[in-house]
Amino acid sequence: MVLTKEYRICMPLTVEEYQIGQLYMIARHSHEQTDSGEGVEVVENVACEDPEYGQGQYTEKRIHLSSRLPYWIQSFIPKVFYVTEKAWNYYPFTITGFTFSFQCSFIPKFSISIKTKYENNNGSTDNCLNLDTDALNERTVEFVDIAYDEVNPKHYKEEEDVRYFQSRKTGRGPLVEGWRETVIPIMCSYKIVQVSFEVWGLQTRAEDLIQRSIREILLLGHRQAFAWIDEWYGMTLEDVRMYEEQMQRETNTKVAGNGRSDVATTKGTARRSPNEAVDAGSSSTPAAHTPTTPSTPCTPKSKSWFSWS
Q: Where does the Phosphatidylinositol transfer protein N-terminal domain lie (predicted)?
C-alpha cells in the first residue's frame, strides 16, 4: 500500500515569478541548512530535453543527513550515508526521485515519488496532475497555508513570518486570514507525494513520519520564497542561475568541511545541452549522458527520501 497525498501550497505570486523565486529559495535554503559535513551537495546541474515536456533542467544532489534522522531510524542506518535526489524540472512541471547510496537488506522496498505542477489559481483544480481513477481514490488532499500553518519553532524567524511581512518592491503582504480567497496575484503548487516503506512493524510509522517531514519542508520553503521576494524580484533567469551556481560552490565547500571523501565536484552547472562540448578552460564538465526523464521518479526496486522541487 502506497501512502499518497496531494499537497496544495498557494503563494501571492504568479507562476512566472515563482520560476525565479523557487530557484533562489532552493539555493539559499540549501546553503543555510548545510552544516559542516552534512546538508545538500549539488553533484550535477545541466540542461535536458524531453519529447513531451520540452527543454528543462536536470539536477542531481546528495543529501547528507545521518544525524538528523529520528533515533529509531538511526538504529539500523549506517552512520555515514547520503540520499541521492534526481530532479527533472520542465517548469511548470517537475519530476523528482530519491535513492539511498547504499544497499540495506532491512529496507528492501522503500520508495518516494513526487510530481509537481504549478498553476495560476488558488488550488481550485481538482485533478491538476491528471491522476487516474485509482490514484484519485487513494489520494488525500491537504492545503498547506504558508501564513497560518505552524512552522517548527527551530525554523521560525520573525522576518519570515508572512502574517506580518510586506514586500518593499511589490507591496504584497501581510497575508491576513482568508488571504487565498482575496489576494491577487495567486498561484498554487500542486504536489503528488507517494511514499512506500514496506517494512513489517515500521511501515505506518515511517510513512507518516516521511509525509510529515515533506509537509514541513514544503511549508518552510514556500514561505521563504515569498518572504525573500525583495531579494530575488527583478532577477532574470540568467541572474538566478549565476546565484545558484555561486551558492552550490559554497554549499559543497561546507559539506566537505569535515574532510569526507564522498563529496563530489559539481558537474555541468552551466545552462547548456548535456552533450555540448566544453571549452578547454571551462571549470564545468558536461554530463556523461543525457539524463532521461523517468515515467515515474522511482522504479519498483529503488529506495528513496524527500525533496523541494
A: 3-248
DSSP for 88-104, please give it: EEETTEEEEEEEESS--
Nearest to 88 by CA among 54, 41, 122: 54
Q: Which residues pair with 98 in a beta bridge?
A: 85
Cell output for 290:
543525457
**Grid coordinates given for 309:** 522541487
Q: Give the whole-angstrom CA distance, residue 47 versus residue 49.
A: 7
The C-alpha atoms of residue 145 and residue 225 are separated, in whole angstroms, by: 13
pTM > 0.70: yes or no: yes
What are 302's three cell numbers? 529503488
pLDDT tens digits, 83-123: 778 899 999 999 987 654 443 444 546 677 889 999 999 99
Separation between Cα atoms, residue 174 and residue 143, nearest integer Å: 19
Nearest to 31 by CA among 216, 227, 268, 255: 255
Alpha-carbon distance of 206 to 239, in angstroms, equals: 40
Residue 271 phi, psi dihedral angles, 5° rounding: -85, 95
Ordered by where they begin, the domains of the chain are 3-258 (3.30.530.20)
C-alpha cell at 73: 531510524
